[in-house]
Every structure is written in structure tokens, then in C-alpha cells.
Amino acid sequence: MDKETWNRIQELLPEYLKTPESDRDAFLEQHCEGNEALARQIRKLAITPGSGFLEPVDGLDEPTDAPYPRGTRIGEFEISLRIGSGAMGVVYLARQESVSRDVALKVLPAEWGAHTERLARFKTEAIAAAKLHHPNIVQVHSAGVDAGRYYIAMEFVDGPDLATVIKDLKAGRRAHATIPAFDEKGYARRIAEVIRTMAVALDYAHHRAILHRDVKPSNILLDANGEPYLADFGLARDLGADGISGSHQVLGTPHYMSPEMVRARRVAIDHRTDVFSLGAVLYELLTLRRPFASGETSIPTVLAAITDSDPPGLRRQGVHPDLETICFKALDPVTADDIS
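User: That's the sequence. What structure does it adopt?
Assistant: C-alpha cells below.
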């Protein structure tokens, strides 16, 4: 991203955040003057708590650390802007000056550094993701610690996540230049392409003994060309390693958790947990509704629905029978008998 674009983002983003949500499209149309790339970046950087990217996981509360201001240096990286938060850290857009590139810099909040389990999981993410070299998995460039601040430097994907795409589709907005409107011809085919690409990326990870365990729309990113990337291995399990990544805690984001993740202490977990979650993402993209307890926010209600009910069929939505079959095959629950 060039300096002129960044300066313009710095000017517009604070005003965009103050603008009522119903008026934000008009604000961007007026101030971006037809520059869709600039508007897309502002929408992406405006993701705030409640968007889906910041959902709590297993009681991991949001860090209370104040965000690092622009210009803060951590290792060889200079922070530009906070762009989000996940289960295991705060994510910043930063500049790696040595190679002149932008990176997504995930930093473990200082208050979590003394928490043995969180620190172990943060390190697990860096190790697990660094083992994967796939064109549709966000690449880990480096990891380290600077003055007690643990960080992971990752590939920066210049585009929205699927949670933002879904939100725009629900509002009747064009979500991405490569994604047709929900009621346009070709929408389902395009969504099938995105999910197929993610399935291939997950298969690659599974063959290297890595389970993602938190597949959801906010962890699938689209670049400017519409190419999808799997991100955020903060809850990954490395089947080839011992330690905390192999624990049987209930982890994940409720609306996308597999039944075996819900029953983690009683049922073994394998690659099918990610297949189930990807099926839930596919279902939501095809219907703009989550498959289980779509309107519910109560975690016990959602988890009960996942383990005890089936989502409505898709044919009334006009979905091709073959695509419906694929979606529901992915959503087949794994039972103890399947694994034992």
C-alpha cells in the first residue's frame, strides 16, 4: 500500500467510525470519489468488537491493554494501525522495513504474557502455522519476543473477511468486486469456488497433522482479486506434537463448532471438526443464515442446537441439489462410534 493511500485512510477512518452505520456507504461514496480499493480498506480497518472477529472463546476475555499507537516499534516492525483481535492476540497492520512490506502483526497483550496457557497457545499458533506453506493459507513470516512483547508477523491480506462479506450481502451491498450480489446469477457457483479452495487448504493442513479448530467466516480472508486465505491458527492443534495443543478443552466459536468439539471431553477430535465448520460457513453463505440457532446469542442454546438438531434444507433457497448434498455431508456429526 502506498504512502498516499495510507495518509488518506488516516484522514477518513476516524470520521467513518463516527458516522452512523446507515450513512457509511454514502460517506465513502462522497469521500473516496470512486476509489473502490480505498473504500474497501476503510471498511476492513473499521472492523470493531461485535463483528464476529472478536467473539469470545472459552472465556478468553478481550485484553484491556491500550492499543499501541502508530509508530511503535516491536522488533523490526513499525505499527501503523490496529486492525482486529482474535482469540490469542491483537492484530496490527505494521511495516517490516528491512524488506519494505506490510505485515499483519499479532501481538500477545502484556497482561496475557504471564498466563502460562495463553502464552503456550500463542507459541503453538506460530509453530503450527509456520509448518504450512500453501498459497491459500496466510503465511507466517517470523515470530519472536521484544521487551517482553510476544509477536507473530504474518502475510497481510489486502481485503475483507467473509464475516464482512456476509454483513454486506445482508445489507444489500456489493460485498466484493468478485462476489456477485446474493440474488445474482453465479453467486452460488462463486461461493462454491471459495469454499472448495478453503477445503483444499484445510486438506493440506490436515495431511501435515494440523487441525485449525476455529474455521469461521472471520478467519477466511479475500484479497483484492478475490482469492481466499485461511487465517488465525490461534486454536490450532498439532497432532504431531505434545503439549497444550492436544488438550480436550471446549474451544472454538459456538455457531461454527462441530458436535465433537462441544463434547470435547468425551469424543476424540480429528480433521472432520474442520470439515463440519467449513460446512457451516458454506451454509451461511448460501442462505445468509447460520445453520444452527441462527438468531440466538446464548451460547448454551447454540451448542444445544448444534448437538441436537439439523438445519433447514437448502432447495427452497434455490441451491443446486449437488451443492446441498455437499453442504449437508460436511455437516454430518461425528459420533463416538465413528472414531472408536
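The longest strand covers residues 77-86.
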